[in-house]
Amino acid sequence: MRDLGVGDAEALVALYEHLNPGDPPPSPAAVRAVFAHPGLRHFGRFAEGRLIASCNLAVIPNLTRGGRSYGVIENVVTEAAHRGRGHGQAVIQHALGQAWASGCYKVVLTTSRKDPAVWAFYERCGFASGDKRAFVIRAPAT
């Protein structure tokens, strides 16, 4: 397990095909901007030198809770052939450890998946589904 950098972007974008098939790839400028963003880290798990699982953690500064930050985990993905072997849980646990080490008082994770097995996976990772309610709004089509 390690932090991913701009040099891992091609492998990460390829892995994201298992998350959002057919998503257009980011521009080189977008890749550089994402990896330069303070407070945003990407973590990856490798098998035989190939990236097989990843997630990212954003640490958000905060003025509540005594000024303690909170974390947001997104883009959790494991290559289809490697699912069910603990790789996704390992990247999430690593991200959580990094969040706690950064002084976060909580970590939030959302999913658009409707599969109860996916929800159960996140609960096995320690997340509580009934603690908060998430609302999403997407940018209007242009």
TrEMBL record:
Keywords from the UniProt entry: Acyltransferase, Transferase
Keyword Calcium annotated: no
GO molecular function, one term: acyltransferase activity, transferring groups other than amino-acyl groups
Record keyword Transferase present: yes
Domain N-acetyltransferase, chain residue ranges per copy: 1-142
InterPro entries reported for this sequence: Acyl_CoA_acyltransferase, Bact_Acetyltransf, GNAT_dom
SUPFAM superfamilies per the UniProt record, alphabetical: Acyl-CoA N-acyltransferases (Nat)
A Pfam short name: Acetyltransf_1
Name assigned to this protein: GNAT family N-acetyltransferase
Naturally occurring in which organism (per UniProt): Roseateles puraquae
